[in-house]
Amino acid sequence: MLSLLRNELLLRPVYNMFLVFLELFQGNLWWAIIFLTLFVRFALYKNTAAGTAMQSQMSDLQPKMQEIQEKYKDDPEQLSKKTMEILKKDGVWPLKGCMGMLLQMPVFFGLYAVISNIANPEGVTKIMKFSSSFIDMVYSFFYPYVYNMIDTANLVTNFLGINVLEKNNIILALIGGILMFINMSIMSWTRPATPSIPGWENIPDMGKMMKFMNYFLVFMIGSFVYSVANGVGLYIITSTLFGVIQVYIQNRILVNAKLATIFKRK
Prior knowledge:
Blueprint: H1 2-24, H2 29-43, H3 45-71, H4 76-89, H5 94-119, H6 134-137, H7 143-150, E1 158-159, E2 162-163, H8 170-190, H9 206-227, H10 230-250, H11 252-265
Helix pairs in contact: 1-2, 1-5, 1-7, 2-10, 3-4, 3-5, 5-10, 8-9, 8-10
């Protein structure tokens, strides 16, 4: 049952959508992955934009949040209740900030499985392995339009000397890490200050600790891109670049002001 649900709700839809893009770009895996990623990001633009916009809403709520935090500091239950009332009244929900990312996850895992099955059908883990042949995974109404792309021999896997189906590419890993660093930097510049959390003042070097966590995440993303098939890494890179551009467009005044300050110091 679980295998059927995974196949019909995750792998099969993503595979068929991927075949459409492969047909559009004459079997070029690179362009198919890039434009599939852009298609997904544009489709979810409203959700991710709402999450980004929520940051400015949170900034406006800071005085209220600090007020109730001080008022109910000795009553955690009431503090939690009043906090939720404020968030509900102003239409600000923590889940809204990550909804766009959550909606992208099925496509990510589906594409991961598609690339893995094309690259090494026999070596794919059970959770990612197609439960039927490539041809059986195609929707019947798509078949007349994408049948050439079902045969992996018709696919173009190389671009700029990089094979989409291979892994351990240091260039893509570096690009992925750098883009994630840029993305996190911009997000930190546009993120409103949060109310002080009781007890944090007793933790030494909290700023250094958070900076270390950010660098660690950048390293993890770079390592992940290096360890997976280049096609999966290309998806991550394209999606992250889209995110950087989106956050910049929505917060260009704040970002430009921060950049001006940085370059003025130098």
